[in-house]
Queue: 2 jobs
Job 1
Amino acid sequence: MDEPAVVRIFDTTLRDGEQSPGATLNIDEKLEIARQLARLGVDVIEAGFPIASPGDFEAVRRVADEVGRGDDAPIIAGLARANQADIDRAWQAVKGARRPRIHTFLATSDIHLKYKLKISREECLARAAEMVAYARGLCEDVEFSPEDGGRSDPEFLYQVLEAAIKAGATTLNIPDTVGYTTPQEFGALIAGIREHVPGARDVILSAHCHNDLGLATANTLAAIANGARQVEVTVNGIGERAGNTSLEEVVMALYTRPTVYGLRTHIDTTQIARASRLVSAYTGIPVQPNKAIVGANAFAHEAGIHQDGVLKNPLTYEIMRPETIGITESKLVLGKHSGRHAFQTKLAELGYDLNPEDMNRVFERFKDLCDKKKVVSDPDIEAIINDEVYQPVELWRLEHVQVSCGTSMRPTATVTLRGPDGIVREDAAVGAGPVDSVYMAINRIVQAPNVLTEFSINAVTEGIDAVGEVTIRIEGTNGAHGRHYALNPQFGLRQRTYSGHGADTDIIVASAKAYMSALNKMLSARKEEVGG
Ligand code: KIV
Ligand code: ZN
């Protein structure tokens, strides 16, 4: 029997995904995620938008050089608007990869042509052809995307796509940029392109769907059913506004329903859970509990009838096994008497492979926690790892925090921080509550104006001794412009959001750590933005 045909997975977590508010990633975090994407087996990593900032350029260049070099390395793509400066910059960033790709885009819908680009259809057609040819002069692998393809006049879209093929595009990606289409419409659009655009059957057709109506996965599957053989996706479905099509949903739909699609991917599904955790930890965007495939409840059975059925035979209520996506049932219960070997075995079971330095720090934290809790659960360990390992570069370090508060006194905090220059500074402040007083004392030292836009606290496990995990978001207030918006002056200058997380059995300490994590992220991002 013939092998089923392959659908290529183009992952844009590091580009479209990073455009989610608050998802700002630094270069090391991008590299770590890119390594996991390579382990996952994606065919293409879109590593960023190199012209957006020196930091974006450097991240794409390093992903190309460090993850894109091996024999089996994925293609590394860099995004560029359809102009020479963007394309040159993208090429400089990706050219170190074994298989580089330039992904250039130009809007084709009348709305975008009239109000955003202020050009005619003729100018659009000419520019698309000229810039694809220019990119092709630099790189053999060129992808062209007609932005807002889902709302473009199909007849005009066909003309632009034909011109792009003639100019040398090797992949044509059709974006439903604003998540407007329905599965029937989007499937028909792909079928129409295959039928009406000369040469469309000789290039790869790709789908890039946004989730504004919650239809991104359905639209992507409809595109596949109509001949798309590349799909653009993100881990956990993060991305602009309501996000992009989620990688795990499309991959597991193809995997679970082979008789419907008869297609396969190159993805190692057992790496999905780990990729999901990593992306969530680094972006600070939690996965909703009922999220398909990777949500905490995706394999949880609550109703008695369901539990009874699953115990008799998992097939009664489970269409996928948790092991298939890399969730293994834990056999080891850890506590005070567990040694390093048991701890390492547990980490391997959970899918972590830490370097010796991180391992030492995490093990020390685990031992501390054992003094406070009898049984340390898997979520406790994951919270420690998130807190110790998945953190931004520590420009400012929290050395000490102390708070006095109660019914008859004003909450007062004293904090001690070590600065980037190695000098230890101490200050104190009175606030509206204990957390407020800590944040005010930190502000007095760090002097990085910002607004706290979100604060959430979550007990990792049940019980009074639970570890508390705090996630916060802050927005810079003195000129940290959102670069994706800054590229397009019509949106005005918008501030970027930075997330931070911290975990501790003491929630005030967890809150202080979360704030330091967000501040460090903001300050490092500013350094990267200016190429520092
Ligand atoms: O949504 C979109 O149109 C995009 C393009 C740049 C492919 O992200
Ligand atoms: Zn997009």
Job 2
Amino acid sequence: MRFGLILGDQLHHQLATLKVLDRTKDVILMAEVFEEATYVTHHPQKIALIFSAMRHFAKQLKAEGWRVRYHVFQSDSPIRTLLDFVQVQQQRLSAKELVITHCGEYRLQQQIENHWSQQLQLPVQCLDDDRFFCSPVQFRQWASRYKMLRMEYFYREMRKQTGYLIQNSQPIGGKWNYDTANRKTWSGNPPLSAPLYFELDQIDRDVIELVKREFPQHPGSLTNFHWATTRSNALLALQHFIVNSLPYFGDYQDALAQGEDALFHSLLSPYLNCGLLLAKEVCDAAEAAYHAGHAPLNAVEGFIRQILGWREYVRGVYWLYMPQYANSNSLHHSAALPKFYWTGRTKMNCMAECFRNTFEHAYAHHIQRLMITGNFALLSGVDPQQISAWYLAVYADAYEWVELPNTVGMVMHADGGLLASKPYAASGNYIHKMSDYCQHCTYNVKTRTEPDSCPFNSLYWYFMMKHEAIFRANPRMGMIYRQLDKLKNKDQLIVHAQQLLTQIDEL
Ligand code: FAD
Ligand code: DLZ
Ligand code: SF4
């Protein structure tokens, strides 16, 4: 008899572990444990989603004839870690091998590879996670062909490999990427569809009570918990997105709007990342919508690019550069994360809106993460590790393999440009152009150095001046430095920005 340990982000029937085990002989292990639930202060909705999805999945496996040993979270249990649980089961059942699918996070994978076999006195077989389009080995081979890694080239390879939106070996429509057609602002039209909320069942309710009781210190509300916790409901969420939002996903991908928490984004990342949905079935559904004439090319290409391109690319970067990637800080930023990242209380309306969404829903769409909360952390010189710990804690979809490259590479440019060729820094002007946030803000987006000036403005120029030695030569940033050369009152800008930074918690 063998054990198969299934983790909280591996909840799919096609998991490699389930493919090699035999349900008539082997035993599945699953455990809700203190260490996984507290290695950061995960948003309570993230813990509730994972525990509830784990319980539903275990129930289904049992109904299909698997023998499942499941550990329910108990704060006073001596079982604190996944290893503790396997050890206890091993004492009872004496398995001859432990089978596991490769973990999403380096932290746990290292523990398993380096210590478990010896501590358990049991062979450990680790299988590739074939839920992804590209394995870490394949990514390494691809990366070895380039001096500089760029998502766009990786993405083209993946399009050719999978055949998505390809006809006669060429991209449908003649272009690989329709990003420039994805930058409309949104002001009420086309209307948004009503969000799909799932009724809670008894398992959800039990888990929500448990999370309320056991993790009161974790920031975020459980009141709005409406995530799907079963595969069948996650499939409904996929269908809901394809029918209602995919047609507009492309046009409004970069938009931001007051009070609108998801716009035309899919809200599928928590399901993709915990296993309730597979990347392939999501891309298949999007491509089918294009061929059926239901969604235009810029929408479907843009959506598939996020999953087949960005999601696979950041995973590849993570496994290629860990563990040193986690300590990247090429801009030498060391400021503390402002307190409002945890309280949500700030006079900057754009930031307050993103924090509200984050704490109410354990969600923020990509542009909120990248161009608002991320941009502010970059401009104000926050220590990349502190902002990274925040992103890992506050979102229902957060796992280090996807969070870290997005934060360290895309947002903070702390990896020296490994992941992206230039920092996504922007002044208030960009936020004003892409949203109506500034209309609801006490700060003035049009000025730079007045007491009520938008903080993004002086911080933006201060950032460009501070890092001029690195960025002036960057061909993609030439225009910014030509603008900087023409700016008057640079000294006043510097003084104003420095003053903001000394009293950042007051903004
Ligand atoms: P959509 O906009 O509907 O996109 C569709 C899917 O594409 C997503 O579900 C996701 O699986 C994938 N995707 C889109 N953008 C990215 C990206 N940049 N990297 C990887 N996958 C992408 N995504 C996570 O899944 N987990 C994280 O922990 C995470 N942390 C992030 C931290 C920062 C600082 C930033 C800037 C981005 C982060 N992202 C993360 C990427 C992205 O913001 C989320 O995937 C997206 O907002 C999820 O919402 P959605 O499902 O509605 O996405
Ligand atoms: C994120 C998470 C949480 C909150 N809790 C558990 C848990 O109790 N048991 C479990 O197996 N997995 C959990 N997870 C997901 C793991 O942290 C995840 O599998 C690892 O980080 C590797 O990606
Ligand atoms: Fe944000 Fe500045 Fe606009 Fe206020 S004025 S919403 S702080 S960009």
